[in-house]
Write a structure and sequence with these properties.
- The structure is a homodimer of 337-residue chains.
- By secondary structure, chain A is an alpha/beta fold.
- Helices cover 30% and strands 22% of the residues of chain A.
- In chain A, the strands form 2 sheets. In chain A, strands 3-4-2-1-5-6-7 form a 7-stranded mixed sheet, with helices on both faces. In chain A, strands 9-8-10-13-12-11 form a 6-stranded mixed sheet.
- In chain A, strand 5, helix 2 and strand 6 (93-96) form a beta-alpha-beta unit.
- In chain A, helix 1 crosses helix 8, helix 3 packs across helix 5 (211-224) and helix 3 packs across helix 8 (319-336).
- The two termini of chain A are 20 Å apart.
- At the A-B interface, strand 8, helix 4, strand 9, strand 10 and strand 12 of A face strand 8, helix 4, strand 9, strand 10 and strand 12 of B.
Amino acid sequence: MDSTGPVVAVVGATGVVGREFLHVLEERRFPVSEVRLYASGRSAGESLVFRSREVVVQNLAQADFDGVDLVLSSPGASVSREFAPRAVAAGAVVVDNSSAFRMDPDVPLVVPEVNPEAARSHHGVIANPNCSTIQLVVVLWPIHRAFGLKRVVVSTYQAVSGAGRKAMEELMSQCVALLNQRPLRIERFPHQIAFNVLPQIDVFEEDGSTREEAKVVRESRKILGLPDLRIAATAVRVPVMNGHAESVNVETERPCPPEAVREVLSAAPGVVVHDDPAELAYPMPLLASGRDEVFVGRIRKDGSVENGVALWVCADNLRKGAALNAVQIAELLERGS
Amino acid sequence: MDSTGPVVAVVGATGVVGREFLHVLEERRFPVSEVRLYASGRSAGESLVFRSREVVVQNLAQADFDGVDLVLSSPGASVSREFAPRAVAAGAVVVDNSSAFRMDPDVPLVVPEVNPEAARSHHGVIANPNCSTIQLVVVLWPIHRAFGLKRVVVSTYQAVSGAGRKAMEELMSQCVALLNQRPLRIERFPHQIAFNVLPQIDVFEEDGSTREEAKVVRESRKILGLPDLRIAATAVRVPVMNGHAESVNVETERPCPPEAVREVLSAAPGVVVHDDPAELAYPMPLLASGRDEVFVGRIRKDGSVENGVALWVCADNLRKGAALNAVQIAELLERGS
């Protein structure tokens, strides 16, 4: 531990994102004088390793956040709504990965490559966007600055890790069951996910979109500071363990030839252009999984509009799509203080 | 066999589509007085069952097509280019599922629900479109007639069966290898397909699109009779055994409220609207596989344009996307004679 660093609490520590928080804090040598781990009563008593030391997970319901400077949290939205005000009252800043506060006009929704300045005006809570939104806006922002966004159409290919550890186990166990011709169990997804594709992530809204699709639309507008951005999203679950992919058609105000887009993206923070068709090189979930950057390729002209470009974007949804982005926000706060 | 029916030759009989030709001919009680099966020298001598009788596969190189009335073919494009003129010279009509003749202005490219009249003007060869194109135009055509197509953006989720039997085996063997922590082999696809997503189908064209994407654009325009249709496609392979899915954003000339689109599609031939979010009912590859119809769901407003609708389309790529569509073309010919 660092004697000078903040006291960091991780809420939802035993989940896939919670564990990723610990990995990312370690990897980035984030200064931490003490780490406290919290989860539901069910997981309390388990222990996780942070910087080679075992840390016992405590019951969130009993947390007083006394002396805690920073909370990195990734529980369900209802849990965040309950504990975050307590943590803030105790003097902590909460970087929350749930959807609880994202659209609250008083809560900044931050992707450090896009709107770092928003993090400054928080009142104790900063929201971490949805995974599929983060990798999209990291790529859209430099395109907007260079060419002006006019309309965006995105279709996603989302990994099961976005639905948590049990969902990953479900994909595996369904594959094993099918390969052994045994009956399979469906619990975490509405239908069989192994060797199938589900055009539903999260619940349905009244207008026929899913909440995941609504998140991409609303959160992208807020982060990019473009409340009227014309954007359409279709969110789809694919039988991939980790790493989200997105097919993106962008229409811009000014001409956006693929070479110019490639140049702009090559210079953009947090983006790796991986785009060499002759070498069959393009982003894939397998390539992006375990990596920090947002990978973009298949950059080509979309001739169906006057100024159009098509892109293929992949990122690790547990890292840049969740834990890494939250830690980057914490780094902004550390630098700002 | 039917004493009055045509003599039917199946070329590429041992492939996944070749076998599907036989299933579909049986199921639809297509009149056949004699069936002859052809494949490469490698597969000659194998036998397949048609209407409870074993039929020996012959070497295509030695076929004279003497007395053959109809050829249903699904070999590679170069094979079709070689054999089709011979078959036509011998008096047969060839319904060809390869890409060899599709864009030939003298060859009709037919989807019976869309442009059946085109089949009449053939000179011996009728081309069957690409799988991902067929299921798209079956849905776009009624929308065009009702509302006028302005622009289409499609991203596909394509099953491995579209790449043939060995590709299906590759997905399976990669899954087994991964689940047993053994090294896996990559032969049919450019990268690992198990638990991954590949934004490449077929080879790359000069403009950065893949040939599969170019096929969707060019073939859709030809079938719909809209040579200037504004359409953008991204073609993606997913680890699904059979059944292609497509996320489609349609912009129309006239208002296209989702209820009106649902009504139009419900009345369209070959289309099943499967769209009940409250019951978590929407098309999926698993649902469409083994079925004849094109399934459409997730019908909802695309508010990012003045008149827009978003759709999710699934079909069995071996049936409607290949064998069934070809047999339907043959049925048109039978009815017309």
